[in-house]
Write a structure and sequence with these properties.
The complex is a heterodimer of chains A (426) and B (390). Helices cover 40% and strands 13% of the residues of chain A. Chain A is an alpha+beta fold and 426 residues long. In chain A, a hairpin with a 2-residue loop joins strand 2 and strand 3. Chain B has 11 helices and 9 strands. In chain B, strand 4 and strand 5 form a beta hairpin. The relative contact order of chain B is 0.11. Classes of the chains: A alpha+beta (426), B alpha+beta (390).
Chain lengths: 426, 390
């Protein structure tokens, strides 16, 4: 994806002024203590669905205000501006309520993939509803039998005239119970090696042939889903990219997913707020929530808070550096795995810091002590940040092999038909 | 760490070529037994490349190559790290930066010129022996007696203290801090060289026993130098960290090359996933370090509002991870990594030396925590109100 030259578009200063004025006049202030939490984690479906509806409204407002899809070409309903403009918006939107929860995966990786691989017709059909808040997209990527090894997908699509018939199961789909569209990686050929028999499709999530099961996580949230696809019929017009070339799409899909931790030109996040998979707290929230209990003056507590703050500041600096390196071509786009690894390990460390600072109230709390509970349950969910969106082990493989050029891992599925690849008992 | 202009690339390139020719590992080993740890002629030639004048304002006779002197100096410091180079880069630039900004015309003409030309060595003396010296706490006192000022206290470790012709001494005066320019031969001033880890970097303990200097030796405001000292300390920290990032970069390249060429059980070390994952971690530490040091240096350059936070975040992150990384590089080398013949220890020594100086990582963590707590909960503890500060 290339962006227009900064010389040919609205200059940053007047854009900042325009955004500032419009946001002040139109957008409501950020909700108090709002963390970016996916619907499904609040404990009340009604509240979650109300928030989803509110996100649709807020997205629509941004669209009408000329602030949706900053880096999306104008012909698809966007603003045709540059990543630098997106960064300006990221700063200006701080302090306002906006659809933070629905940025990911709708805008990236899903919309990013559609922009990169969709046909002209598909882009005109799929992208504007995203920018208007009418369509939220989810990733139908992982399967029960393949987590990190996503190219081993077994969900199968068989051609039937102008349609495809899909069968199989997808898992770890955030928010499938309230979202609209799924971007689905499916196997279209079992007789070629695994990377050469995949195809990507777009499918409406809510239809009789798709059964959605909500997975309960150990913290009680039900944001993740598993879907069972039984003879789902997909028109060939909703195929994204070439038949059996789905891995070409998949590689870029994975790349866009890694840019979530920083540097994606398609998502809007104030510099202080990044999406979190676990229940992790930012350093500021840590101080606000654990501070009033009053033991933050000890050197040990100050040191821990300082460490949490350090990880935040370093993470932000690293995101900017990696994104700039990729933009300028100084580093390969695989370097996004560096940001992903840092994001995972620093989130996990921050969860541990919150647990340590909270002390005993993180394991036994009074009814209503949300901070104590959040620190305790956040600690139990700590590793989610190193698992979701591609494990940190996979990120380490990418960094060592693709960034540092070290030897590739030996695999048991190369150059043999996928049908013959060894599989565990199912 | 930075996006470089053509002029900056030239500065980096000339410094790199000079260090390759004049500070190879053999030369560093040869200097290890010497008193000063560097040759005066080497330092004079380096000064001609701009090493000692980049952070001195133009009106005081100095000049950067890019308009951003702190960034330029950090580029030189990074090259120092890549070569574990000798020379009093930090202390000379710190005293030069101070004299260039706050020195009187007399002080500048007497000292600043020779410092920038590499003819004289001068040092900034802030640190004091622990525990009083923890992160900039100053117990050395200055008090006026007639036209003179009497300074008493101990400064340690003072880099290049035994080579210095003059010292800019930070002292407590009344309720605040002052800085006085003290000639090394002042009666009552005793310099005791210290033994240390680094091959070429020398430190000294400086005792000031009722040292008398004329009132004109004051640099900046009497009792009002706290902000200047804070800025200088942050400048000292980013110079040190830029150098450390250079050491990390050398170590990663050297260890990657080792792991690729060393075979065990019929495979290169670099093909084992356990080893690859450690390289991935090290690469991430290096990139994150370069990123935060770049931002901290820019914050010192522009004296921005978040300067203290960024500098302390950088010191905490780089201080901890650089040393861990170098130790892991030793581990990946195996036995040869702890021999004198291998060059790795030159860099391990440098990052280990840098780690506790100008505040330990833990002291900077506390500073950072205190800033955040005072921002979020209002004034607490000993955090001063107003602009974020230690």
């Amino acid at each position: 994806m290339s962006f227009p030259s900064p010389r040919d578009v609205e200059d940053l200063e007047s854009f900042a002024k325009r955004a500032r004025r419009w946001l002040a006049a139109n957008m409501p202030p950020a909700r108090p203590q709002a963390e970016i939490r996916m619907p499904g984690s609040s404990g009340s479906d009604e509240a979650d669905l109300a928030r989803v509806a509110r996100c649709r409204e807020l997205q629509r407002m941004l669209y009408e205000g000329g602030l949706a899809g900053i880096c999306v070409p104008r012909e698809y309903g966007g603003q045709g501006l540059t990543p630098a403009h997106q960064e300006v918006l990221n700063r200006e939107i701080s302090g306002y309520d906006y659809p933070a929860e629905t940025q990911v995966p709708t805008f990236t990786p899903c919309m990013a993939v559609l922009l990169e691989f969709g046909t002209e017709e598909q882009k005109r059909r799929f992208v504007p509803p995203i920018l208007k808040g009418e369509a939220f997209w989810m990733q139908f990527l992982s399967e029960p039998s393949s987590g990190s090894d996503v190219a081993a997908a077994q969900t199968t699509a068989v051609r039937d005239g102008d349609e495809w018939v899909m069968n199989g199961s997808k898992i770890w789909t955030t928010g499938a119970w309230w979202a609209d569209w799924g971007l689905c990686l499916a196997r279209t050929n079992w007789d070629v090696p695994k990377h050469r028999g995949l195809t990507v499709f777009a499918l409406p999530i809510h239809q009789p042939s798709i059964e959605i099961h909500r997975i309960e996580m150990l913290d009680g949230s039900k944001e993740f889903c598993q879907e069972f696809l039984t003879d789902v019929r997909v028109p060939d017009a909703d195929r994204i990219g070439e038949v059996d070339q789905g891995w070409t799409v998949g590689v870029r899909w994975m790349y866009h997913e890694r840019t979530v931790s920083g540097g994606s030109p398609y998502v809007t996040f104030p510099p202080d707020r990044r999406p979190a998979l676990g229940r992790e707290l930012g350093a500021r929230a840590l101080v606000r929530q654990l501070g009033p209990a009053g033991h933050l003056d000890s050197p040990r507590a100050l040191e821990l808070i300082g460490e949490a703050r350090c990880l935040e500041l370093v993470g932000r600096a690293l995101s900017r550096r990696v994104a700039e390196g990729i933009r300028s071509g100084r580093t390969s786009d695989q370097a996004a795995a560096i940001t992903r690894l840092f994001g995972g390990t620093s989130s996990a460390r921050t969860a541990s810091i919150a647990f340590e600072l909270a002390g005993a109230r993180a394991v036994a709390w009074l009814e209503g002590d949300d901070e104590g509970r959040a620190a305790g349950v956040g600690y139990l969910m700590r590793q989610a940040a190193c698992i979701g969106g591609g494990t940190t082990e996979m990120a380490r493989n990418v960094i060592s092999e693709r960034v540092l050029g070290m030897p590739r891992e030996r695999t048991g599925d190369r150059d043999i038909p996928f049908r013959l690849v060894p599989r565990g008992p199912s | 760490m930075f996006d470089l202009s053509a002029d900056q690339e030239l500065l980096q390139e000339t410094t790199r070529r000079f260090l390759e020719a004049n500070a190879p590992p053999a030369q560093i080993r040869a200097l290890a037994g010497t008193k000063a740890g560097f040759e005066p002629s080497y330092w004079r030639q380096g000064a001609r490349l701009g090493w000692a004048s980049l952070v001195v304002p133009e009106e005081a006779g100095g000049g950067s190559v890019s308009g951003l002197g702190v960034i330029d100096l950090c580029l030189v410091a990074y090259e120092f790290g890549l070569h574990a180079a000798p020379g009093p880069l930090g202390p000379v630039n710190l005293i030069a930066a101070a004299l260039g900004r706050w020195g009187s015309p007399g002080q500048r003409s007497a000292w600043l010129g020779p410092l920038m030309e590499g003819e004289q060595i001068g040092v900034w003396a802030l640190a004091e022996p622990s525990p009083e010296g923890s992160l900039g706490r100053v117990s050395t006192t200055a008090s006026a007696e007639g036209d003179e000022v009497v300074i008493t206290g101990t400064k340690a470790p003072v880099e290049a203290g035994a080579e210095a012709a003059c010292l800019l001494v930070v002292a407590r005066e009344g309720d605040g801090l002052s800085q006085y320019l003290v000639p090394a031969d002042a009666p009552g001033l005793t310099v005791t060289p210290l033994k240390g880890l680094d091959m070429t970097r020398r430190y000294a303990r400086v005792d000031l026993e009722a040292v008398r200097v004329p009132g004109e030796a004051l640099v900046g405001a009497r009792g009002g130098a706290a902000a200047a000292v804070d800025w200088l300390s942050d400048l000292a920290t980013v110079i040190q960290l830029a150098e450390t990032v250079g050491c990390m970069s050398w170590a990663l390249d050297a260890t990657l090359s080792w792991a690729s060429n060393r075979y065990s059980f019929g495979r290169p070390l670099a093909s084992y996933q356990e080893i690859k994952h450690r390289f991935a971690d090290m690469k991430t530490w290096l990139e994150a370090s370069a990123a935060i040091v770049g931002e901290a240096a820019s914050a010192v350059e522009g004296d921005s509002r978040d300067r203290a936070s960024l500098v302390s975040a950088a010191k905490l992150y780089v201080g901890r991870n650089s040393t861990e990384m170098l130790q892991d590089c030793v581990q990946l080398h195996g036995g040869i990594g702890v021999t004198f013949d291998h060059d790795l220890h030159l860099f391990l020594r440098r990052v280990a030396t840098n780690r506790p100086l100008y505040g330990t990582p833990e002291e900077h963590a506390c500073r950072l925590g205190r800033i955040l707590v005072s921002q979020e909960l209002g004034h607490r503890g000993d955090a001063p109100p107003g602009k974020e500060s230690r």
